[in-house]
Amino acid sequence: MIFIAITIGCILGALVGINIPTISYTYSSYLAIAIIAALDSVFGGISGTLKGEFDFKVFISGFFCNSILSILLTYLGNKLNVDIYLAAIVVFVGRMFLNLTIIRKYYIEKWSKKWEERKIKK
Amino acid sequence: MKKGKYVMIVTISIVCFLLMMVIFMQFKVTQKSKEINIDTMQEAELRQQLANWKNKYEETKKKREEVSNTLETYKEESSSDSKTQEALEKELSTLEQALGKTDVEGEGIIINLREKKENELGDDESITPIFANDLIYIVNSLKDAGAEAISINNERIIGITDIVDIGEYVNIKINSNYIRTNEFEIKAIGNSSYLESSIFGKGGYAEQLEISGIKATVQKSNKIRINKYTGEINFKYVEEVN
Asked: In this complex, do A35 and B19 lie within 8 Å of one another by their Cβ atoms?
């Protein structure tokens, strides 16, 4: 059920995104930082699920708040003539890597356990 | 619980929808921005672009000015070069004319010398061959009368010309060429009247030649052509002193 929802959401989003009129190039940097923030939230959510610490409210609030905050920070940086979005990217991408590491470790442990069990069975 | 799950599914699908939409929007923008479309730019960007182009224009203008300046100097140099070259060429051609290295043409006279025949001889006249001295005297006289170019039997008389007898009288050497004849044709360019009177005037050398049994005739012309000196001019001993 949840996978169907995810797939439908993704396909619909892609279709709408392709057909929507293009936004100004200036705003595209805000959009990019929002995407990074959202992806960070997604990976955070996945790693949380694997660890069993997943909280739906935290995930949703993180998803939207991080995106909006990063956009605001980028805007502020533009006004101050400081590239604040770089700091946001560093933080978000760093966290994304951390979460990816957690996900990787989880699956490696899982598979290696299965492997050993199989060996013992044999 | 069921309601909560339902909300969660809807929320997650909305999240997915938003994420994918934004991602694809961004893809589209980045793809288009590669073509630098002026329509998608904002005022600040346009201003930036304008400033860039202005800078570029200014630089190019400066460069153009520099290049045109250097071009101007080159032009000046080349024109002055061509002027000096013209002057040099003029000088060279004058020098060559003076040296006898060019064919020349102009007003002048032609003197023909030949030994008299027996029946032409006067009372106290006797046949004498034409010697180099006769030619030298005539050439000198012509030069004195302002001859600008002289030739004997088409041998141009120049600064280094030698006119000498070699053994027999019919053998005269001019410009290292042996002329075995007793008939000479001397051409001279200059004021024809002066030239004529210098030889054929009263008490001139023609009278003496007449006595020596040499027939000298003169012919004036407005257009005498004298060929150039064809030999080489080499100096072995002479060195220029600075």
From this structure: yes
Residue-by-residue DSSP string for A30-87: HHHHHHHHHHHHHHHHHHHHHHT---HHHHHHHHHHHHHHHHHHHHHHHHHT--HHHH
Query: Are the beta carbons of B17 and A13 separated by less than 8 Å?
Result: yes
Cβ-Cβ contacts under 8 Å, B20 against chain A: 9-14, 17
The residue among B215, B216, B217, B222 whose CA lies nearest residue B192 is: B222
Chain B: closest CA distance from residue A34 (Å): 8
Q: What is the DSSP letter of B169?
A: E
- Chain A to chain B, count of Cβ pairs less than 8 Å apart? 104
A55-87 pLDDT tens trace: 888 888 988 998 999 999 899 988 898 888 888
Eight-class DSSP state of B102:
S
Does A100 touch chain B if contact means CB atoms closer than 8 Å?
no
Of A11, A13, A28, the CB nearest to B26: A28
pLDDT tens sequence across B178-190: 777 778 889 999 9
pLDDT tens sequence across B49-74: 889 999 999 999 999 999 999 999 98
Evaluate if residue B206 carries a pLDDT over 60. Answer: yes
Q: With 70 as the cut, is the pLDDT of residue B121 above it?
A: yes
Q: Distance (Å, rounded) from C-alpha A120 to C-alpha A109?
A: 16
Domains of chain B (ranges, CATH numbers): 105-226 (3.30.70.1880)
Question: Of the candidates A12, A16, A35, which has its C-beta nearest B26's C-beta?
Answer: A35
- Give Cβ neighbours of residue A62 (< 8 Å, ≥ 6 apart): A41, A44, A45
